[in-house]
Every structure is written in structure tokens, then in C-alpha cells.
Design a protein that fits this description.
The protein has 76 residues and is an alpha+beta fold. 20% of the residues lie in helices and 37% in strands. The chain has one domain. Strands 3-2-1-4-5 form a 5-stranded mixed sheet, with helices on one face.
């Protein structure tokens, strides 16, 4: 993972987006969907990977922006 990737994680009773390498959350949201949308926008603007965690903290999904940077060429 590159330094600066965006992680959408559960923090207490809300969801947060954290930039890898930073200790504080960049932003928070009441729902996972809201945080995920904001995290996606951040990742697209920065050209990094967006890592979306499940409620239990495990990685549920990864998206690389731009797609040409994706190390795996398979669809899905």
C-alpha cells in the first residue's frame, strides 16, 4: 500500500476516513455509505487506493484510482 491511501473505518458510533500515515481522521459520517462516498472522492482526487473496512475492522473492499494503477488486471 502506498502512503496516503484512504481507509474508511468504523470509529465508535460513526464512520471515518483516515489517510494512511496520519493519526487523525480526515472526516466522519453517521453512515458507512456517506463515509464511503467521501472516501472515494478523496482517493480519486489523490490518485490512491480506497480501502473500505467492515464493522469488525477487516478489509471488505479495495478500489484503486486511477484504474490504470491497479496491480491486478482482473475484473471485479
Amino acid at each position: 500500500m502506498a502512503n496516503g491511501d484512504i481507509h474508511t473505518v468504523k470509529q465508535g458510533d460513526h464512520w471515518a476516513n483516515k489517510v494512511e500515515g496520519s493519526e487523525r481522521a480526515s472526516n466522519t459520517a453517521a453512515t458507512k455509505a456517506e463515509a464511503q462516498a467521501e472516501g472515494r472522492d478523496m482517493a480519486i482526487k489523490r490518485g490512491v487506493e480506497h480501502v473500505i473496512h467492515n464493522q469488525d475492522g477487516r478489509i471488505g473492499e479495495r478500489n484503486t484510482y486511477p484504474r490504470s494503477r491497479d496491480p491486478r488486471r482482473s475484473k471485479g
